[in-house]
């Protein structure tokens, strides 16, 4: 790798860290400032985490333990400190040592967030990566074929299905496919199961195949339309005529010259989509009862559990930022004209 | 130029290329015949839309499947390409016949290096290793005058200048030693200073490879340099065909006069204006009846209205020089000597 590329990556990573800071600060402020504007006090906030029939003293104790009496800036400072050097948390009966990167303890379950996230990340990653491979292969091949057979029954049929695929939400297609493939036919696993890849790859795939297909259906529809549009454009380029004039076989013309030219925008969106999904596929995880980051995010938000929310938001933001960087680097790999600048 | 039964290297007979569209049938080429021998150069001249590029794409078999209706005969070494299987024509493309396009920047794939694209062209028709093909590519780049070819072979098209790109394009076209080279407006997208170099290069290489060359251009200046024969096209038909000498020394068709009159020349007095052809080329869907050039012709009144009703046939006016015009030989000679030649 040439040194310019390394400086570029370092610069981008630095920018990413700054961005993550901003994201965390905004999330933190929303959490504290919105209740404050609505007239909340440290006690009223703490009462949510103090149990149902807590006395006033208990609530005050909880508010103190969670640090709600400190100014918001101090609280944020403590949280940031935890991320970098670790910290200690007073859990009431014990004091827990939380090494860096400490994203705090859940207000409700009293579990360290970082460990929760590490626990759940494999589920979401398996879901996202498996589905991504499926939709990329399916979407791009269907798009190429539609473009080549433009106006035929195949083109119309696939583009019709693609339109449906883009329009139908996951919680609809997911539940329909669960009902049909799992409960009627019994072909696929019931939702809610997950086997780590390292334990049993076959079982891993069996558990995830239906969520993959459901998620991939939505995305491949989009990718098929995108690929088709791109191919229709590139196949009209002069360089395609040149490739034919050389005597190249038609399928080589299509794949090596046509698809290569159409691939750049697809790659961009692919990187961003995967990055986004790695932060949690909320609808899919909910529909198939998968305990991934999306499900975690839903629980965190509905429980008003700040450390969890912070953790999951940062995680998601991290993946999006990294995906952006990877896409930009891939651009240079794909398009030699980008390399110089 | 006379009709002969002897085998020509390339012979096009009564070629029709029609494109059915929603607005009607576009008759891009409507009855075109010519012949070309190896080592010779034919210039096809005409305005945009006269059917010259369509003709070359038909020879190469590069029209999209189902879009063009091609009739007539295209005989390459006696082998009729019209109606031949697409696979057969594909095997000839690049190997027996190659083409140079107008804009080398858009005609080269932006994502592959120059060398890569030449290597690809060579390896389609030759079973050789990449290393051998690469050496061949470097040799070719050297031959077409790219400095430091061993280094530049890995450059991408955007790293070449316009003239260099066209040289590389020529190298790509010549990679398999084609017997027929078609250059479609090879210098139109280039700087004037580079144009002459590229034309020289094509002429040198033709001498070296002894291929037949078709140069397609709207610029008579280009063919004046290179062509042995010249075919002037108008609205999909040949209206004048002869040796370059005949066409430049004694052009017979009013349209050719118009083309010559619109050519800027240094030796002309600056006060004199160019003599542009009035009007615009006709629609190829509704080609004017009679002589398709008559709405723009200044001399149509001289033949009693025949131009408006009757299509002039291509006829020999001596030594194989053919024209399609209703004007009598005496009228043409008089007009050329008194009205046209003095103004050129």
3D structure, described in words:
The complex is a heterodimer of chains A (341) and B (344). By secondary structure, chain A is mainly α. Helices cover 74% and strands 2% of the residues of chain A. Chain A has 14 helices and 2 strands. Chain A has helices spanning 3-37, 42-46, 56-65, 72-85, 113-148, 153-167, 170-184, 201-234, 238-245, 250-278, 282-287, 293-302, 306-334, 336-340, and strands at 87-90, 95-98. The radius of gyration of chain A is 25 Å and the shape is globular. Chain B is 34% helix and 21% strand. Chain B has helices spanning 52-60, 86-92, 104-107, 114-125, 130-143, 149-152, 162-174, 192-209, 220-226, 244-249, 254-261, 306-309, 329-340; strands at residues 10-21, 24-36, 41-45, 69-76, 79-80, 97-100, 180-184, 212-217, 229-234, 237-243, 315-316, 322-323. In chain B, the strands form 2 sheets. Chain B has an 8-stranded mixed β-sheet, sandwiched between helices. In chain B, strands 2-1-4-5 form a 4-stranded antiparallel β-sheet, covered by helices on one side. In chain B, helix 4 runs parallel beside helix 7 and helix 7 packs parallel to helix 8. The longest helix of chain B is centred in the middle third of the chain and has 18 residues, at 192-209. The two termini of chain B are 27 Å apart. In chain B, 45% of the residues are buried. Chain A binds chain B through residues 237-239, 241-250, 257, 260-261, 334-337, and chain B through 60, 62, 90-95, 98-99, 101, 103, 106-113, 120-121, 124-125, 156, 158, 172.
